[in-house]
Amino acid sequence: MKFDDEEKAGRFKDLLERCGHRLDRAAEVMADIESQAPLLSAVIERHVGEVTGVQQRTRDSYRSITRLHINPHLGHKPIDKIERSDIKNWLNKLEANGLSSKSISNIHAFLSGVFKVAVREWKLIDENPCKGIRLPSSSLPFEATFLTYGEFNILLSHVPDFFKPLCHTLARTGLRWGELVALQVGDVDLLAPTPYIRVTKARKRVPGGFIVGPPKTRRSRRTVSLPPSLVEILVPLVANRPADAPLFTGVRGGTLWHSAFAERVWQPAVAAATATHDNDDHPIPAEHRIGKTPRIHDLRHTHASWMIAEGVDLMTVQRRLGHESITTTVDRYGHLVPDQLVKAALAAEKSFLAELAAMPNAEDPMEFTIV
């Protein structure tokens, strides 16, 4: 390497010795030192401070992501010295550390947004090194346990009476846990022509604890109609209670937490429902137990499966569950409606034959076969 002055050459020599005579590493450190651009960590903090249209909890989440997953790998580098190879190595490290593909995608999207602002608004760099990089994709299939009506009733028989209304609501509305525990009495209208629950908020985990804020996505704000049997179950929870009272609580009236409910209610109920022998070691008949170990969230999936079994279309399922995209609904529950694929094929054939018949000089359309 050639240098313009002796002082710079001396600094490089010192760096080379500190880097174990690795020329490439010494050159990289030298470039970082001489760069006039701010460090990536400083650019991210500026972006988080200036971004508009987000709540404080979102800023806190961005800072947590930066502290845990970005700064340890890239935060010390000047932003103009970060290359695509650095981004690829960083993504591979995140995957090696066990982060899910969804988490990696979210973190990458956040960092890409920072680089985009650095290019367009602040003119710190010429291009976004995150752009066009292939992200890790999960090889794990979507996992869900679907309960039949009978299996749900067996499981429910082992749930304490106090918590039965909660389980009924999860299974008969498809609400997420965070949406359910954020419900207040005023969110329920049992006297409407079509009784309903209005989902407008959800409990969420944030750095340092939990908050109640907007639900997961824009489409998660929704009205969920209630079947008559669930209305009867919810009446005692609504009658003569103030509108701002929580609909569901712990046994003593306190806040209902997922971890406590899972440990003290759900897991014992699943264990009892799947047991092959009772406490006296007598065999439990197969028809009185289930061969599945559902999670609490599987009641949401179970609700979807019940709707589909009754012929409800996937678009309606999407809206009821609050999925932002129909793609999510199809990916998760499309296999439950194989007959829909047959209907789609027949509809396509009918349309094709109708258009063919309308063509001048068309041959007999019934002679055509669609394979």
From TrEMBL:
SUPFAM superfamilies: DNA breaking-rejoining enzymes. It holds the Pfam family Phage_int_SAM_3. PANTHER family: PHAGE INTEGRASE-RELATED, PROPHAGE INTEGRASE INTD-RELATED. The lineage of its organism: Bacteria, Bacillati, Actinomycetota, Actinomycetes, Pseudonocardiales. One of its GO terms (biological process) is DNA recombination. Belongs to the 'phage' integrase family. Keywords: DNA integration, DNA recombination, DNA-binding. It comes from Amycolatopsis carbonis. Residues 34-119 form the Core-binding (CB) domain. CDD domains: INT_ICEBs1_C_like (cd01189). Residues 142-346 form the Tyr recombinase domain. InterPro entries: CB, DNA_brk_join_enz, Integrase-like_cat_sf, Integrase_catalytic, Integrase_recombinase_N, Integrase_SAM-like_N, Tyrosine_recombinase_XerCD. GO terms for molecular function: DNA binding. This is Site-specific integrase.
